[in-house]
Design goal:
Methyltransferase, Cobalt-precorrin-4 Transmethylase, Domain 2; alpha/beta; Cobalt-precorrin-4 Transmethylase, domain 1; 236 residues; 10 strands; single chain
Length: 236
């Protein structure tokens, strides 16, 4: 009988304690596992240490699944132990695995092979930002990263703005933290004055900042301190 693939959320912020943002029941699942598919070995080991797991971390088996992993034979090799009856846990670098995360590759392979996939409860920066935005939570879309080059990024921003206005669909996106300032500067230049923008930074940390204002209000108040800090943006 095949094992189970558990999707294990971890804190978004390094300063947050594991069981401040995840249920204690997750710990029982983690303690039952000795095989983990992780985005980053170092951060996964650190998370398991903070989770105070019952087993010695050096006795566990880890395999990395990240943006460099090529779908195909490597993924099939990862799920082979699960097919043989061994359960596994998937751990992202931060937040929930499988969402804006390469863990989706192994999940797809498990569904294809009839392996049960169980998502555990935990923090998602995307959903937490949406919850706190005050924008339309009945219809929203996560768009991942926008183009890096300014001309293409401007086109993408205008497209998302039109979609938000015409479809009344909140448009969620992210950027590499070191490019946050450039992205927001461009939003303040190309978006309409009445367009609403949520900026959600360092979610769940003691330095958390979440605010929704019109572009006109953001122009007046100035940009928040988002340089090199994990941030979610939502246009509504």
């Amino acid at each position: 009988m095949a094992g189970v693939l558990y999707m294990i959320p971890c804190p978004i912020s390094d300063s947050t304690e594991v069981y401040d943002v995840t249920p204690a029941a997750n710990g029982k699942v983690i303690d039952s596992l000795d095989y983990f598919i992780v985005e980053n070995l170092r951060s996964a080991r650190r998370f398991l240490s903070k989770a105070k797991i019952a087993r010695r971390i050096d006795d566990l088996e880890f395999v990395e699944l990240n943006e460099h992993t090529v779908a195909g034979a490597a993924i099939e090799q990862m799920i082979k132990p699960i097919l043989e009856g061994r359960s596994a846990g998937v751990i992202s670098e931060a937040g929930v695995p499988g969402v804006a995360d390469p863990g989706a590759l192994v999940v797809e392979a498990c569904h294809r092979r009839g392996i049960r996939v169980v998502p555990l409860v935990g923090p998602s920066s995307i959903l937490l930002a949406m919850m706190a935005s005050g924008l339309n939570g009945q219809s929203f879309a996560f768009n991942g990263y926008l183009p890096v080059k300014p001309p293409e990024r401007a086109k993408a921003l205008k497209m998302l703005e039109r979609r938000a206005q015409q479809e009344r669909q909140s448009q969620i996106f992210i950027e590499a933290p070191y490019r946050n300032v450039k992205l927001m500067e461009q939003m303040l230049q190309v978006c309409g004055a009445e367009t609403l923008l949520t900026v959600a930074c360092d979610i769940t940390s003691s330095d958390e900042f979440i605010a929704t204002r019109s572009i006109a209000q953001w122009r007046k108040s100035g940009m928040p301190d988002i340089a090199k800090r994990p941030t979610i943006f939502i246009i509504g």
